[in-house]
């Protein structure tokens, strides 16, 4: 389980892949380069996975650039979700995984 930043804390990412497939978000074109204007692009979602999403099984997906030195401060690192406690698991992940395991 990976912790992802939000506000001043984190949420527990359940690696369901929903955010990386369905949300319109700005991503790094090249995870080996810093988040500058010429290294950002829009990922439109619509069920298509982000270029950095790896894996084939909900709950076991991973981000290829998550542990890279340029991930910190990139738009995905700043993804926000309102939770009561920074130790809460991602509610979208909990919902998605609950439906896929039924």
Task: List its salient traits.
globular, 102 residues, two-stranded antiparallel sheet, alpha+beta
Largest β sheet strand count, sense and barrel closure: 2 strands, antiparallel
Taking all Cα atoms into account, the compactness measure Rg is 13 Å
Helix content: 10-25%
The count of helical stretches stands at 2
- Can you list the strand order of the major beta sheet? 1-2
Global morphology: globular
The succession of helices and strands, N to C, reads: EEHEEEEH
The share of residues in extended strands comes to 15-25%
**For the terminal residues, how far apart are their CA atoms?**
21 Å
Structural class: alpha+beta
In total, the number of strands is 6
Number of domain modules: 1
